[in-house]
Amino acid sequence: MTPETPKDGTKADKTRGYGHGGVETVMSVDDVTRQAQALAADAPDRAALHALVDGEPLVTIEGLRAGYGKMEILHDLSLAVGRQQSLCLIGPNGAGKSTVLHSIFGFTNIFAGSITIGGTDVTRLSPNQKLKAAGIAYILQDNSVFPDMTVEENLWMGGFLRDRPAKAREAAERVFAKYSRLRERRGQRAGTLSGGERRLLEISRALIMEPEVLLVDEPSIGLEPRFIDMVFEILEDLQKAEGKTIIMVEQNAKKGLEFADIGYVLVSGEVAMAGPGAQLLEDPQVGRLFLGG
Length: 293
Fold this sequence. Notes:
By secondary structure, the chain is α/β, with parallel strands linked by helices. The chain contains 12 helices and 10 strands.
């Protein structure tokens, strides 16, 4: 579809932006980034971040400098989230949000700083060690299921680090007992599932190792609204009923902040703002830059 031509004969501009709100609220990604950088002038310090934690921190990052190859993406970044709390990272494209998750799980080069889980330094552990020994699971963006395997076989793959295959099968049965939608499709090829069912399978597969911390990357990406609500209900149940700690990146800032106990705004690899999710949701600067209002 081509842009509508105004009455003066000129072609309408193609504006790249977040796509929320009316025409008067839409800004280009470059404008969002530039204006968001001004927020960093009053960036929260370590004490302010720890004040948002309910009880003792479970996950703590101190002075992290990390990136890919020799390129540093995160600059002296700190983070704190308590047991059974949820933290949502929002910010403009290229702010380093997914790099935070990658660094916690061991996918980046760490140049300085530390990452601790329950007081144990896990900075230099491999992803396999973090999954098996530190209780950290990473739920990737969409399309991480094995499409030619059945739902049941996909779940078993989540337990590849289990000492005994029988343990993975037992954990899979607990998933089927909890989620009838997957139980009814246990013998079905994963590639035939709907988008929401695939996301449920991805989340469930991460649970097979019984992690304490879930790193969730863009849970709403590519989903219809009805499935987005379903996925966030599942995550809320995992946090509130099963005691999981959740650190999430979510481009749908409104949905992410509505869900999260804590919200961080990342800009250029640094924490520019932090506060309770509900408070950031009402902040006029956050609304203007990330919520389209």
